[in-house]
Amino acid sequence: MISNNRQSKKMKLKQLLCDDTEEQVFICRFRKDENGGLIVLTLLLLISMLVVGGMAVDFMRYESERTKLQSVSDRAVLSAANLNQNRDPQDVLVEFFDAEGYAGSIVGSPVTERTASRSVVSLSSSIEMDTFFLRLIGMDTLTAPARATAIEGVANVEVSLVLDISGSMAQEMQGPIIQYENGVPIRDQNGDIVTVDGTGTRMFFLQQAASQFIDDLLLPQYRDRISINLIAYSQHVSIGDDLYYALRTTPDSISAPEDVDGNAVQSVIGSSYGTVVEGEDGVPFTLPYFDGSIIDDYSSGGLVVPTSFGWVPNRTPVFTNLSRCVTFTDEEYNTLTFNTERVYEQVELADYYWIGTNLIPGLEACPTEDFHGIILMSQNAAALKSAIMQYQPSVNTSIHRGMKWGASLLDPSMRSLISNIPTVDPAFRFSRPAAYNDPTTEKYIVIMTDGETVSSVKIRDEYYDEFEERAGLSTQTAYYYANNNPDPSSSTSASIDGDTGEIVNTMVESIGTENDLNLKLSQICNLAGAEVTDIFTISLGVQNPTMTNCASEPGNAFFAAVTNDPNEPGLGEIFARIAEQITALRLAL
Which residues are within 8 A (CB) of 499 and not within 5 positions of it... i.e. 6 or more apart? Predict the structure, then answer.
């Protein structure tokens, strides 16, 4: 009761005060009025918005200045690192920054490393930028930093040079012919190689372009840094003696059967053997010549051969397959890893492309000349160029096989195998092929063709497992041998099985379709492209989509015309561009 009375008295007192004067009335109304309460909050938010919006402006200005400084830094180190730059690199850097309006921006002392073959320049720089809005929160300046490193020369480089030596390389084309003096290309006052337009085979223009590519890479200042794998391909890739004997392969020789007296039994097939072979005791001798009048006489216990033909009794002739090509399984095109443990099948020594009597060297499925063999991890320019200049057009085009070997010889799985080959350059044995993630090593594949991958054929295994078959196929074309073989099932005239649609009654069989082979090429290109530094492709006189897609970047796929087209680069110009990219002056990441 008492509390209620007190509250009533207070209310009456307030009413009396408000009713007393106008001033008191205004104060009371102002105290009760809530209009305009957001103005204070708006003022506070406006200041915050100005600061935040101003930060964006200041940071955009900061990024713009930092980008300019980075550009100046990059161009400065590129200029200072140029091996043709004879001035002190640090002086070049200082003058470059001064000229660009960034005097005094270099932080500390630039790092420079210079030898005859390699130049590295690295620097740090920074500038202070005054702020417009951030100063409202106490940030008067922003520091824009930049770092740059340029390298000219090479670290460690592995190159697989894969060249097409198929039969179409014998066709003529037009192009620039390099002019030489005492074996050295003549250069004009600008340092460019002097050429004259002329006509030659595609092989000729490839030889001069690839040879110059070798010279452009294997400069004295790059000694022990660049290694080149040289791979020539046609229907197959001849891997050469060194690599062939390092692999586990099927036997490359077979002995003739013997009669009861221990004399070699030789069937009479074709017009002649006359081949020098090696006996079991290591002594070479020549098989007797048959003119068709000599016949087998097994009833007398031996072969009737005049002694004047040099027949040596009790010595078994041995046929040696000179082919140094081996085959891959379909599954091996799905991996870069090279299987060094399995046994590889040797390609037959046979010529089954031309209807005639005798085998023509260079037209076998696997070229047998030494200079066609793979050269491993070499920096011997003379040896590489010598092999290239001896290349002869062979048969067929199997780009997928060339690419498979080019990629395999850059894969680390080959290191142990190659390291055991004594003829490999000591500078590279036991260390190459390096790991893909080795930061000091770059890997490149350069592959060239003048056509597209085509399907090929091979002798069926059952017609290449006896001495007579191997010897006969090595000296006569498959067609001639088959048509003169008493066994009619070996005829090369194919017939079709009406029920199955399969080719029958033929001693040769097809190896895949063109689509299948292009798929293999694409598979190995994709795998290699994900691991190596770059893949460069060169298509001569043909637009080959598979080759274009094989390049690791669109700009790495080159096309060369077979005429003097001023709008298209020639082979020499393309190879020169690729060499420049491999050894280019570049910014380090």
Answer: none
- Taken in order 574, 580, 586, 589, is the CA torsion positive or negative? positive
Q: Is 541 left (phi over 0), alpha (psi -120 to 50) or beta?
A: left
Burial 384-416 (b: 16+ CB within 10 A, else e): bbebbeebbbbbbbbbbbbbbbbbbbbbbebbe
pLDDT in the model for residue 37: 61
Supply the pLDDT for residue 268: 35
CATH topology of domain 165-237+371-451+512-584: Rossmann fold (3.40.50)
Report the C-alpha gap between 488 and 491 in whole angstroms: 6
pLDDT score, position 191:
80
Q: What is the DSSP letter of 36?
A: T
286 class by beta-carbon count within 10 Å (0-12 exposed, 13-18 middle, 19+ buried): middle
3-state secondary structure of 213: helix
For residues 524 and 445, the answer to whether their CB atoms sit within 8 Å is no
What pLDDT is recorded for position 4?
61
Q: Quote the pLDDT of residue 301.
A: 34
Q: Which residues pair with 130 in a beta bridge?
A: 141
Helices (H), 252-397: 381-390
Helices (H), 179-315: 202-217, 240-246
Strand partners of residue 228: 159, 378
What per-residue confidence (pLDDT) applies to 526? 97
Domain boundaries of the chain, sorted by first residue: 38-152, 165-237+371-451+512-584, 271-320
Low-confidence ranges of the chain (pLDDT < 70): 1-38, 40-41, 116-117, 153-154, 258-316, 353-359, 361-362, 485-505, 585-589
Q: Which residue is associated with the tokens 């940071």?
A: 59
Give the model's pLDDT for residue 11: 64
